[in-house]
Every structure is written in C-alpha cells, then in structure tokens.
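Design a sequence for this backbone.
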C-alpha cells in the first residue's frame, strides 16, 4: 500500500506538521510514513503519532506526497538518494529555506514540486505557511497539498522570490515571539508574579494581540495607540522601546535570517 504522505526526516518541523495533520484527522496515522537518521527518532515518532516509520529514506520516498524535512545542508545527499524511489506522479514538497523549485525538480528527477515555508505552531493548528508550487503542478495537485497544509493552520501563495521573506516573517518568527514573551514574563517576575503565571499572561496577551491584528482590520499602529492612554503607563513602555531601538532590531533580525537563507 502506498502511503499518502512520506516524510524524509521527522525533527522539530516534521513532527510539528505530522502532529497537526494527525490531530486534524486529514490523514490517518497509517497514511503517513516517516524516516530519520536514528532509531530513537523514528521510535519516538511511532510512539507519539502511531505513524509508520523507517530508517530507509527510499521507503518513505515511495509515497504520493513526499516531504523533505531534513536540514538544507542534507539535501545534496538525500535528494539524489531518494530520487530513484520517487513515484513518477509524486508531488515533492520541500520545507527548507534553500534549493529552488528548479533544483529540486532536476535533482529529484520529478515534475511536480511545491516549496512550503511552514512554522512550528503547525503543531497546535496555528501554522502560517508560504506555498510555492511549480508550473507542473495541476490545480488538483495544489489542492491536495493545501488540504494537508490547511489542516494545521493558515497558508497563502507567494512567488518563489519571496520565500525568504515568508521564512523570516513566519517561519522564523515564533522564535522571536518566544523571546519577547520570555522577556515580558521576566519583567512580571521582577514585580513578583509567579513565573508560570507570567508566561500564561504574556502568551495570552500575544495571542489576543495577534487576533486583534487579524480580525479588527486595523493597522497595528492604531491598535497600539488605542492601548496608550494619554499620560498613562503604556506610552512609557513605548517610549523606552523606541529609545532602545526595538523596531530597528527586529528588522535587522529578520533581515539576518534572509541573508542566511540566501547563502544556503
Ligand atoms: N524548525 C522550524 O521551526 C522550521 C524548520 N524548517 C525547515 O525544516 C527542515 C527541518 O528542520 P528541523 O525540523 O528544524 O530540523 P531537525 O534537526 O529538528 O530535524 C532534522 C531531521 O532530519 C533527520 N535526518 C538527518 N539526517 C538524515 C538523513 N540522512 N536521512 C533522513 N533523515 C535525516 C533527523 O534525524 P535524527 O533526529 O534521527 O537525527 C531529524 O529527524 C529544515 O529544512 C528547516 O529549515 C522550516 C520552517 C520552520
Ligand atoms: O532556522 C531555520 O533554518 C528554520 C527555517 C525557518 C525556521 N527555522
């Protein structure tokens, strides 16, 4: 039986996607096969998700949709290795911030390739994924990939030239938001709030702020202004963040991820 989806690698991102897919029910665990480098990883994936697992990449590559979930520097080894095992009509999906659609199609010897740039909140069904199909993908092919991607969050099409921007503003972004939440919680702890409670407050404030941006239709600056009571407390924090160069630091951090992606 051919699996619906095969993962080459099941680390942080691969497992997040698998969790999102299995939790949503868009695939049964038995529809999924994953390979990895070590027995410990595949044993953990089987135990956590009930999926089929293997140390043989070519076995995971004989699926209807094959997801490359190894690190970019592994592509030069792994893609030629699995090429002979890929079904003729496979849809090859890459989630790395490297290797173009053209490189993937030529090196794997397949026609249909989709680049995704997901993020780890896929694990809780709140992913934000960039989608870049090549011209060989039919609408049916794209719809099959979207059925999976949209099972673990939201997705939007972007041109391939913007995939590093999509990686910066969504793929890498959770790490930056975690740092912000951690720092906010440290401040609450400074004031005496128990740390676990501080994380809950900061994290829920982040969730609520994100929903305000998504659902209010208002500009983030206008939303910020609505929090800053004249002569109040928030504006003191805004002043401090502006004096400390937060906006510039955030822009530079995301541009650093773009620079690294373009060097891979
Ligand atoms: N982490 C994230 O938030 C995001 C990651 N990505 C992309 O996802 C891809 C994977 O990243 P990430 O999950 O973080 O990395 P991890 O290091 O967490 O996972 C890499 C996986 O690849 C496996 N692996 C290593 N060598 C081989 C091999 N020769 N054959 C088969 N499997 C192998 C590892 O196996 P083992 O565990 O046994 O060593 C592991 O399961 C990268 O391209 C990354 O850029 C994209 C968006 C977000
Ligand atoms: O850090 C990385 O390379 C991967 C790609 C985007 C998020 N994590």
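Sequence:
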């Amino acid at each position: 039986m051919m699996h619906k989806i095969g993962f080459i690698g099941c680390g942080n991102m691969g497992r997040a996607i698998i969790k999102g897919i299995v939790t949503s029910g868009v695939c049964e665990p038995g529809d999924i096969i994953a390979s990895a480098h070590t027995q410990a990883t595949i044993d953990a994936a089987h135990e956590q998700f009930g999926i089929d697992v293997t140390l043989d990449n070519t076995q995971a590559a004989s699926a209807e949709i094959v997801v490359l979930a190894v690190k970019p520097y592994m592509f030069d080894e792994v893609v030629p290795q699995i090429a002979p095992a890929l079904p003729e009509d496979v849809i090859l999906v890459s989630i790395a911030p490297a290797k173009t659609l053209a490189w993937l199609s030529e090196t794997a010897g397949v026609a249909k390739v989709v680049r995704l740039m997901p993020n780890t909140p896929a694990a809780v069904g709140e992913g934000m994924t960039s989608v870049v199909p090549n011209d060989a993908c039919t609408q049916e092919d794209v719809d099959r990939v979207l059925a999976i991607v949209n099972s673990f969050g939201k997705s939007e099409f972007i041109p391939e030239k913007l995939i590093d921007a999509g990686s910066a503003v969504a793929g890498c972004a959770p790490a930056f938001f975690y740092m912000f939440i951690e720092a906010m919680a440290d401040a609450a702890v400074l004031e005496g709030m128990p740390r676990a409670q501080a994380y809950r407050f900061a994290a829920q404030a982040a969730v609520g702020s994100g929903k305000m941006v998504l659902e209010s239709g208002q500009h983030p600056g206008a939303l910020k202004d609505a929090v800053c009571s004249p002569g109040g407390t928030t504006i003191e924090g805004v002043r401090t963040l502006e004096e400390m160069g937060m906006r510039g630091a955030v822009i530079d951090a995301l541009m650093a991820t773009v620079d690294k992606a373009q060097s891979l």
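The chain has a mean pLDDT of 97.
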